[in-house]
Amino acid sequence: MSLINTREGWGWPARLLHWAVAAIILFQLGVGFYMVNVIEMTVDGIAERTALTQTHKSWGFVVFALAALRVGWRLANRRPDLPRGMSRAERALSEGTHLALYVLMFAMPVTGWLMASASPLNDAGGYMPQIRNMVFGLFELPDPFPVGDKTLSDRLAAIHAWAAFGLAVLVGLHALAAVKHHLADRDRVLMRMILGR
Fold first, then answer.
1. Do the domain assignments include residue 61?
2. Which domain holds residue 81?
3. CATH number of the domain that 20 lies in?
């Protein structure tokens, strides 16, 4: 089991980071959709949504940290060669999709953190308890907006929602491309990310 990437396949750290980030992103997309579209805003619903929001914030921080680690590992390691049979257009589409996935892996947690920080609910005082940006209850993320701004928070929420939609579409396309490589092209692209070779 190789540590570093080779021309033929991915090392185990790259594969572990890939699948861990993928699993957490799918979980985050599901939780986010559930929080926004399913939970009713009753007294019990607000309590459930608040608890899920804190969980969502925590795992968002993990995605950001793992994505940063993944980029660092990617820069320190070579990428396996693309299959020879890929056309120039397929190579460009692959590069563009991967770049967009990386951008959104960072944009999602950053816009979520900024949205929550700009929310008036994140301010101390007032008639409601402060909802701080905690990571698994262990530490608090910094607050770049000492005074809440609902308009800014709403704009960031819209960006966050559209980025989530874009990320869901790209993850779906990425998975379909992997299946196409495996079933139609019969190359090792998918197996290299599963087995490393």
1. yes
2. 12-194
3. 1.20.950
One-letter identity of residue 179:
V
Tokens representing 28 are 């985050």
Q: Which residues contact 26 (CB under 8 A, 6 or more apart)?
A: 171
* Tokens standing for residue 75: 């820069």
3-state secondary structure of 6: coil
Give per-residue pLDDT as tens, 29-66.
999 999 888 877 776 777 788 888 899 999 999 999 99
Residues in the chain: 197
Q: Which of 90, 101, 25 is nearest to 63 (CA)?
A: 25
Burial label for 77, CB within 10 Å (0-12, 13-18, 19+), is: middle
Q: Does the model's pTM come out above 0.85?
A: yes
Strand partners, 139: 135
